Amino acid sequence: MDRYQNYSLEEFVWDESFRNWVLKPTREDNEKWKNWLVENPDKELLLCRAAEIVQAVAPGAVFLPASEKREAIQNIMDNLPASETNILQAAKPYFTIQKWMQIAAVLLLFAGLGWSALKLRHPKSTNYEELVSGAGATLTEKHNTTGKPVSVALSDGSTVRLNPGSKISYPARFAGNRREVYLSGEAFFDIARYPSMPFFVYANEVVTKVLGTSFFVRSYANEKEVSVRVKTGRVAVFTRNDQDINDKLSTKELAGVVIEPNQQIVFVRETVKITKSLIPKPEIVEEKNTYNFNFDEVPVATVFAVLQKAYGIEIIYDKNLMNDCPITATLTEMTLFEKLDLVCKAVGATYELIDGRVIIEGKDCKI
Amino acid sequence: MRSLNNLTDDEDTSLWHDLLAGSAPSFEKLIDRTYDMLFQYGNKFSRDRELIKDSIQDVFMEVWEKRTLLNDNIPPKAYLLASLRRRMHRLAQRNRFVPMEDSHFPGIDFHAEFSVEYSLIQSEQDQLTASQMTSLLNDLPKRQKEVIYLKFFNNLDRDDIAAIMDIHPQSVSNLLQTAFKWLKTRWKTAISILLMLQFA
Hints:
The structure holds 2 protein chains of 2 kinds. Chain A is an alpha+beta fold. In chain A, 28% of the residues lie in helices and 27% in strands. Chains A and B meet through helix 1, helix 2, helix 4, strand 1 and helix 5 of A and helix 2, helix 3, strand 1, helix 5 and helix 6 of B. Strand 1 (57-59) of chain A pairs antiparallel with strand 1 (114-116) of chain B.
C-alpha cells in the first residue's frame, strides 16, 4: 500500500485495485483502505474525489430489462438437449432479492397511468377452475379450509392473506414478464414492487393489475358481486371480457379503471357492470401526519381541504360559495362520513358520492 | 494486490467445473451471472438486440454440447467473451451479401461511448475533469478502447484480454501503453487549458 502515498487523482482513478474496491467493495478491501486512511488522513478528500469519478465515468450500457434477460435464459435452458443425469434436478431460483431490488429501483419511476372506459362484450366463461386449468403453467393451489386467515408467501416476496373458504393458485416461481395468480374467495395482497413485471390477480370475471401495492380482492363464486379495495398504492381493474384485455394485460402501465386508497371497485355479476365508489369506512391514508380535526371559526373550504388530504379522497365543492362559511367543530374520533354529515349540516349543504369522489352541494352562506 | 475480485471469479470457476461435470443448475447460474456482461459486450459490436441474444444463446449451447471436451482450467468469463466475439465476427462476415472493396469486415468494429453521471460528482472541478476524461476515452482508436473497456470496466487481466481479442499478450500491453500515453499527453494539455481558463 506504500505506493499510494504520492498518487495523484488521475493515478487513483486508473488504479486497478482502487477501482475494484470502489466498484465491487469486499469486506477485506474495506478493511484495507480504511487502515490506509488511518495512516494517511490527509488523503481522504483525494480518495473520495477519485472514487466519485470512478463511479461516474462508465461506458454506455443498453438497458436490459430483468424480464427480457430471464426469458433469454429460459430459452437457452429450454433448448438444451436432455442430459441423462441431471434432467430431474430442479433449477434453483437464480434471481436474488438484491438484484430484484436494484432493478425495481431503476424502474421506480413510471408515469402516464391510463384511464379507459370499460367496454363489455358477451360474457365468456370465467370461473376459477377453468381459468386455472387454462393457465398453461404448473400451479400450486392453496385452499384455506381453516376458520382463520392463512398467509401464503409467493416466490417474488409478495404475501397473500387468504381468508377462510378461499383458494389461490400460483406458480412456484414466476416466469415470463407477468406475475399471475388465480383467486376464488377473499384475500389481502401485499405485493412486492417490480414495475417491469406487473402482478395480476384473476378473480373470476375481474382482473386486477398492480405494479406493487396492497389491496383486497373478494370474489366468492356464490356471491352476486366481486369487489377490489385498495389499501396502499393504486391498482387497475378490468373484466375478463374486456375487448381490449390483451392490451391491458401487456402494457407496462395501469390501464382500466384505476383505484386508489379508500376506493373500491364493485363488479355486479348480474348486470355485468363495474362501478367505482368509496369504501364504507374510509381510513386516513397518511399515518405519518397527524391531522388536527378541531376547527375553530375556520372557513368550511379549509375543512374540506384537510379532509381531502387526510383521506386521499377528492372532495369537490364551490370555493366561492364555501369560503365565507366559518364553522367550529370537533371532528376527531368520527368516520369520514360522520364528519361530512356534521360539516354539511352546519353550513346547510348536502353531499353525494359519485365515482369514488365526494361532491358537495351547498348554498351561499353570505348574508 | 490480487486478492480483490477473485472471490466472485472463484465462484464462476466452481460453477464452470460443475457445469462441465453436467450440472444444469450450475450452468443456469453461470449464465445468469455472466449474461449482463456478455449482452453489454455484444452491444459494442451490434445494435441488434435479437442478434446479440441469439449469439449469446449459441455460445452457451455450444458450451453445453462440448462440455465433456472443454478444459476446466480456462477462466470462464474470458472464454465466454472470446466465443461471443468470434461468433459475432463470423456473423458479420456471413451477412456481407455485397462484397466490399476494402478488406475490413463491416459490423465488427468495437463501438463504445463513455459518459459521465454528473450527479455522482460533488465538485464542479471534478465534473470538468471527468467530462474531459470521458471525451478523451471516446476519442481513443477502437482497439485501444476495447482493451481499456475490458481491463478497467470488466476487470480482466492481460492474458484474458489477449485470448478474447485473439492477439498476443504483449500486444495487449502495447495497446494499453499507447492508450495511456495518448490519454496522458492530451490530459496534460486539457488540464493546463483548464487552469488557464480558471486563472484568466
